[in-house]
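Ligand-bound model needed. beta-D-glucopyranose.
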Amino acid sequence: MKKTLALILAACMSLSLVACGGGGDKSNTPPAGGSNAGTSQAGSQQPSSGGETKTVGIAMPTQSLERWNRDGAYLDEQFKAAGYNTIVTYSDNKNEQQVNDIQNMLSQGVDLLVIAAIDGNGLNTVMNDAGAAGIPVIAYDRLIMNDNSTYYVSFDNYTVGKLQGEYVRDALDLDNAAGPFNMEFTAGDPADNNAPFFFNGAMDVIKPYIDSGKVVVPSGQTAFDAVATDQWQTDVALDRAQNVLASFYADGTKLDAWLCSNDSTSMGVTQAVTQDYAGDNAVVITGQDGDVANLRNIKDGKQSMTVYKAVANEAVVTLDLAKAILEGKTADASLISASGWGFDCAYDTESYETTPGHKCPSFLLVPDVVTADNMEEKLVTPGYYKVGADGYLEATNG
Ligand code: BGC
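Prediction:
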């Protein structure tokens, strides 16, 4: 408790806040570790105010990518602590399984759904069922391309890519150095609406340098579809990186940077570069999420940066939004000013469309750049990670 308070105070002092200090119980610190295995159905300890306990269905994509375990655990823990029943599912990155899981939640009578979609275009049937039953849906992190998405909670996805592009620009000093520099791109899953946002944010920074000849892409692969990675899989990114290295760099061509949209793809690219790149220069490699294995690579100098998104805060926004919806209160920008959140969040009614012309009101949090130099300040001080006995960062468990 004391630690939590200290962390809240630290957050209040160190961040530029939309609102901090209002609501006593709003922490931006992660909840204690939490189990996250398979499907969990939780009984609540406290009834929600006004009688009957409400149930929230939380559908996460997979446990095979580190971040969704964190999201699932944070959401589960925070909803339970607020007195809700929860049903949590992970669907093994299989769209059909996620459809079934959500269908089951609807038949179990959930009052609200929080869904991180595997395929943003693959949930129409259940989304229409939810809409027909009047069940609100919060599209979590990834937009669901269906107009029954009541709200969207995520980070500013375009800015994630922009931060990656700017990092490469500054690391190579593209504005001043003579160049040319050789660079490659690896993007995310085409089924994930976020993936083009990340890619475009990065490409908008780098493209002028490609156009001017300061940056060269020896593979010629600069279109999203050419560099996308099915299901964000490490192995898929690894295979493509190995092919690119074998085809375009085996003759001794220097590789200066590889812009990767997230940590799972960065992991594959880093492995390929470590094993198969003949040059001895340090290659600038980007990422996103702050996965533990990638933080190790960053500390070891194999990956240059990651864009960190505090998913504990994403869960806080989701909980407060869900409460407002379930209590019939207004859920717009006023939620932010009344929140007492110790972190920045924007209310955006323009950027995200579920179908052409149909905008989804969105709450967007702010991503941050983490490098070897600021890792402890950005991740350990706020309580997201701790330093393990071996000096590398590991998840906090309480
Ligand atoms: C998330 C990223 C994550 C990726 C793969 C995206 O939708 O926003 O944080 O790296 O999915 O799981």
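The chain is about 40% helix and 15% strand.
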